[in-house]
Structure formats: C-alpha cells, structure tokens
Amino acid sequence: MFTIAEELLLLAMDDDKGTVVPTAGSLEYGLAGAILSELTMMERIGLKDDKITVVNSDSTDVSFLDSALNEIKGCEKAKEVEHWINHFGDKMGELKKDIIKTLVDKGVLKEEEKKVLWVFNQTTYPTAYNRPEREIRDRVQKIVFDDAKPDAKTAMLLSLIQTCTLVYEVFGKDQEKEASMRLEKIVEDSNYSEAVKKSIEEMETAILIACNTVIMTTVINTPNN
Questions:
Q1: Which domain holds residue 88?
Q2: Is the pTM of this model over 0.85?
Q3: The CATH number of the domain where 48 resides is what?
Q4: Residue 196: pLDDT band by 50, 70, 90 thresholds?
C-alpha cells in the first residue's frame, strides 16, 4: 500500500538515473498537496472557515505524514490551505528524503552514490523493484483510457500528475495530448465522498496557485541571455 505522495514521486523518478525527471514541474508543491490530501482522507485534518484544522492527531504510522500533521497541530493559529502548500513545498527537501526513505525501506528504490564530474558525490535512487510503479501506471492508464472509475486517492493522483506536468512522463508522447484532455474531464467529474470533497477541491486550487506563483517567480528572476 502506497501513499499518494509515494506514488507521485515514483512516477516522477527516472528509473535508471534515480533522480527526478526534468519535466516534473513544481513537484515539491505537488508532493505537499499529496500529503495534505492523504491526511484529509485519513480524517486527520479538515477545513473550518477555509482553514486547516487537526481533527485527529493520532499517528498515521507514516513518518512524513506524522511530521506534517505535528507541524499543523503545533501552529498557534489555523492557516489556509495555500499557506501549508507553500510551507511544506518550501521545505520539501527534508520531507522528500523521508518519502524516498520509505520507498527504499519497502525495497522499491535503492540508494547509490556516484561521482559527478569525477569530483562531487551524488546520492541517487534508481528503481530496485519496478512492479509497484508498473501497477500504478497500469491503474491510471485504465482510468484514463478504459473508463475505469477512480477512487478518491487515484483521482487526486491524476490531478497532481497534471499539475506537476507529468502527463508526458506517465503516458508518453503519443498519448500526451489525449491524456491531458481526458484528465481534465476525469478530475472535474470525480465523485469524492461529501466528507472530503470540499477539502480536496480547496487543496487542488491551492496547489495550482502555488505552482503558478513559483513558475512566475522563476521566470521573473531569470536573467535574460
């Protein structure tokens, strides 16, 4: 059993190089959204007056989810979804290490050290066992092209695939355009339970806003050649 964040990161990793593919735009914010969505579906957090509140502080038994949950719980004032998307997105380096560690512990990824330019050491995480990722890809393929019905977690994963510009990576060049159109329709029509519907919609909106902000800032701050 994998979390949304683990599945998203697996799809975003180059299996051989063990690094995130270059086309994965704003992945940090996508992972932040995945974590908040998972906590919502586990009924650990909810929305009150458009702000995230902790409704159950019991451990999730997942280190990076508990880390995020404890931070939200420890905040003196309730904050809006966009705040937490930005907060966890900005510190995703630390959280991503925890996500990768869980995948290494499960035997899906392996840790390797390699030299860069024959001088610097770089830690990479190539695939050790590819069946889980194949099953994830098969599942989303059936939903997008064979009209299988997604559950809430997979619907959120599909939304994040689109948000993090991973459509090409997941579906390939030949299917990219059609998959993008179908994804929009699937995400729009997804029928979440009433208990989580509003929270997930708020989170999806916040992810998009955060990603767009990051992209715009990057463009503005990039010097002209």
A1: 4-221
A2: yes
A3: 1.10.3630.10
A4: low
